[in-house]
Amino acid sequence: MHSDGEPPKKGIWSAGAARQYSGTLTQVDNCQVGVFLGYATLHGHTLVDRRLYVPEKWFGPEWEARRERASLPEELSFWIKIVLGSEMLAAARNRAHLPYQWVTAGPAYGHDHDLRQMVDDPGKWYCFEVKSTAEVWSREPNWQVPEGGKLGRPRRRKRPTADSPQP
């Protein structure tokens, strides 16, 4: 059950539904997952933006019928949750309608160096949850995206170079 008492949506034809981890369910199940940008002040809170996370397998040829039945736009492509969250934060910052000082995020986002850098402006602060195995540097390391990757897919996540200080 969701926190609101509703059962999870389990249909195979629902856009983005697949066996995946759901923070709401706190387990892997057949469900839909979204990325959300909220805004909170002393006076209240609201949802600012949201994106449906569509798992990578939905973009394979064997899932074409599901994409069509779910009316997913043909130009839609796979994006990891970090990219969806970063896009929403950047759009909100560029609109400059919502004054903010803090950005918070859970562990799925807290490990991402680029997202932290995006918030690292004068007068802006972040509080991101990280895993207990997170590495912390006293000096900024040199970052690079390693070459290669599993099954020939390009890597996206930056890693410290060999000449970087020890964490």
Describe the protein's architecture and organization.
- The chain is an alpha+beta fold and 167 residues long.
- Helix content is 19%, strand content 25%.
- It has helices at 64-69, 81-95, 107-110, 113-119, and strands at residues 18-22, 27-31, 33-41, 44-53, 102-105, 125-128, 143-144, 159-160.
- The strands form 4 sheets. Strands 1-2 form a two-stranded antiparallel ribbon. Strands 3-4 form a two-stranded antiparallel ribbon.
- The chain is globular and about 50 Å long.
- It starts with 17 loop residues before the first strand and ends in a 7-residue tail after the last strand.
Helix and strand arrangement:
Blueprint: E1 18-22, E2 27-31, E3 33-41, E4 44-53, H1 64-69, H2 81-95, E5 102-105, H3 107-110, H4 113-119, E6 125-128, E7 143-144, E8 159-160
Parallel strand pairs: 5-6
Antiparallel strand pairs: 1-2, 3-4, 7-8
Number of helices: 4
For the report, how would you describe the main beta sheet? 2 strands, antiparallel
Give the strand line-up of the largest sheet. Answer: 1-2
Unreliable runs: none
The portion of residues forming beta strands comes to 15-25%
Task: Supply database-style keywords.
single chain, alpha+beta, two-stranded antiparallel sheet, two-stranded antiparallel ribbon, 4 helices, 25% strand
Short description:
The chain has four helices and eight strands. It has helices spanning 64-69, 81-95, 107-110, 113-119, and strands spanning 18-22, 27-31, 33-41, 44-53, 102-105, 125-128, 143-144, 159-160.
